[in-house]
Amino acid sequence: MSETRGMDAFAHLGDEVRAALSERGFTTPTEPQRRAIPALADGKNGLVVAPTGTGKTETAMLPVLNSIVEEGAPEGFAALYVTPLRALNRDMRERLDWWGETLGLDVDVRHGDTTQYQRKKQADDPPDVLVTTPETLQAMLTGEKLRDGLADVRHVVVDEVHELAGAKRGAQLSIGMERLVELAGDFQRIGLSATVGDPKEVGAFLTGGRGCEIIEVDVTSKVEFSVREPEVTDSDERLSNELMTSPSMASHVRTIRELVEEHDSTLIFVNTRQTAEALGSRFKELDANIGVHHGSLSKEARIEVENQFKAGDLDGLLCTSSMELGIDVGRIDHVVQYSSPREVARLLQRVGRAGHRRDEVSHGTVITGSPDDTFEALAIARRAGEGDVETTQIHHGSLDTVANQIVGVVMDFGETSARHAYQIVTRAYPFHDLAEETFREVAMELHNNRVIYVDDEDDTVSKSGGTWQYYYANLSMIPDEETYAVYDMAAGRQVGTLDERFVVNFAEPGATFVQRGEMWRITNIDEEEEEVNVSPIEDPAGEVPSWTGQEIPVPYEVAQEVGEMREVAADQFDAGATREGVAREFTARYPTDEYTAGEALEQVEYHVDGGHAMPSDDRIVVEQEGRTIVVNAALGHEANETLGRLLSALLGQRTGSSVGLDVGPYRVELDVPARISANDVVDLLRETDPEHVEPLLELSLKQSETLKFTLAQVAAKFGALKRWKGRDGVGLSRLLGALEDTPVYDEAVREVFHRDLDVERASEVLDAIQAGDLDVAIVGERTTVGVGGRSSGTELLTPENADASVVQAVEERIQDDRVKLFCTHCEDWEHETKVRRVGDQPECPHCGSTRIAALSPWADDAVKAVRADDKDDEQRDRTERVFRNASIVQSHGKKAVIALSARGVGPRNAARVINRHRENDEDFYRDILEREREYARTKAFW
């Protein structure tokens, strides 16, 4: 790019802005600036698609600021900068403040945490540019003074528009902007987006179909990827002992640390917060200079590590998807993606953060740990290199958003015609196809719930007594969910939190899940305290977690390429090729090394050696062992979820028994009654009418907790329910019955289908099977490919040493617990202390007796019972237990004190633990742990 061509873009800006550019050191525009500024300076709507850090903010704002300077600032707001995350406001503020001060313009921020004083000041004297969030804009649209200020808006910039386009937040914003048009008339709309597969569709979402210049910067020529599965070395064997993890996991930690050391500043992206914490703890053990950043951390903690990384005080930063969205952490020269990023767009967004400051190539390394993971990452990396990006699923037609915004329009006007409100809503792109009849049904539902008043005769909608309260309680379309605390009963500590949706839809005693890189089993759920009590699984090897955290769905196209890779490799193995030879061919097509490709291909080779048909992009393989049937289908998460639910429902209907279901992008695993075979599953695939998929699923959904929970959330957005709390299935069933023939029910079903399922794709799959275009084969045993997904979500588990670490935690906790020592001989002496301070053989300092009871610090009633002269039956029972306790301590000394201090371990169980005569402390504490777990499982029945 020549400097002359670069200056041509800046030539579209006025003298004041060009002078500020020189002062700022902007001599040559970045590619997005060079290509976008001319059109935006001309007042056109535009969507700028470019990587984070390529100056997108200035690309949008320089023409906007120039327009305000040239045309003169109005009395109200001249421009709004809408961003989906509050965290971005700080970064925008730092950059925009400088431009504002230099150009004599006022820039301010408004969101949920803005003080009342600052809000009043903004209403009385609006800044020229306001940075805000979609939800805060909703509140602003109803303020009397603020509406006066909004009437002057000429420009609206929407940042990270790709994040909003596929969500109800974005659907709400799209109508909000149409409500703003009612105040200000048409204004210029500018969207900033990371790489998307269908920029024209996102542009239509942004502008309501008014026309949009698409300025798309090609990132694929400036990114390079490498997919690696680290090889386990002798040093990794030693490191695994130090980190209490597997050698394979130790090799991952070592490799990431080496990459961080090889570069100046490295972002390490992971897919879940739990993984971030688990990896972070291992780096901390190694004193690696790597911070952790994710959404569950406090704002202060996030800002601290952002500033440390930007200043160069940290060499690496472990982060989740929140770091995709433009937070300024300075220059990055390498990106590590830990495990497959699941989507092409996600990989491009993440790796695109590296190396762009000097217009150089961005480098990224994907670290994988299983065949599925490697094949998937290879497919994604190849597709990313060719710019083959997924399309954005615009959130069309959400009726709870319509309900929310009908109330918004009523708040705007006080009273208006229903036809006028309908026209405002349907100008927004996600609602272009909304039928007027459906709109009126939604309005009547709001009327029935006393949220607004609908006058059929005058065809008007107007405020009612509940309008104001509803609107301000529902500024956000993000569902209102409680959070449950997760407690490790053995260690007596909080492990983390679980979302209410998870607890309602899944959690029950015995269920297993992964959190913070460890596997847990639920012992009981305390609804009143909003707590889930768990115990760690000692040996997770071979155990499949029932739930592994919210997975990013793998798209159909990626899963299909994984299937194709398996088929290509299988054909070569069938023809006699060696694994080394096939791996070498893979490295010619995919960005990886022979070792990584070979490790992934081992699974395929074993499968072929077993003589089994290979599941691929054009073949489904159904296998069975005992009561487990696996449908190997490379269809991606949503299509497999749809097929899985369909099969589960139909098999359950046929047998009258429940059917267990576990779904991934390459498999559907069914836990079936004994009389069901793989042939029954294949028969359903071949016989179920593709046109019946949707009604069959809707019928099965009626019994699901997923629909009931979603219905409760949607009902709140319709004003039909103030707040549902708890897991009362009866209450939810009644709610479902009451709302079944209403728009509330229709929206809940639509939401579940939109969020979790792909009915169209699943129907096409059944069509292809029945037309003979998609082969279905049966295998009468489990195959290496079929069990390949069983390690999903266990990447950071510690099978070799998990038990040892848990036992150590139990020992430390009991030793730090307090105990009340009480002499049952003289009954005069009682003393409270920590367990670790108790001697080998406790003795009364008053009478010298060793008949000392080790009691809870709160066991005052037990002591009073012993000392009482005339005992009732309850006191006699307590006295007997205290004397039995003392007898054990007299016989076994401190060992008895330790056992009696454990949770729920009374004298009888303490005696059983001690009488096993364990030779080492670890086994002794392991026995105590087992007794504590038994107590945790059964205490609800005591």
From TrEMBL:
- Domain of life the protein comes from: Archaea
Per the UniProt entry, the Enzyme Commission number(s) are 3.6.4.12
In which family does this protein belong, per the annotation?
A: Belongs to the Lhr helicase family. Lhr-Core subfamily.
According to its UniProt entry, this protein's organism is Halobacterium hubeiense
Q: Where is the Helicase ATP-binding domain?
A: 37-214
- Annotated Helicase C-terminal domain ranges read 255-400
Protein's UniProt name: ATP-dependent DNA helicase
The alphabetized UniProt keywords are: ATP-binding, DNA damage, DNA repair, DNA-binding, Helicase, Hydrolase, Isomerase, Nucleotide-binding
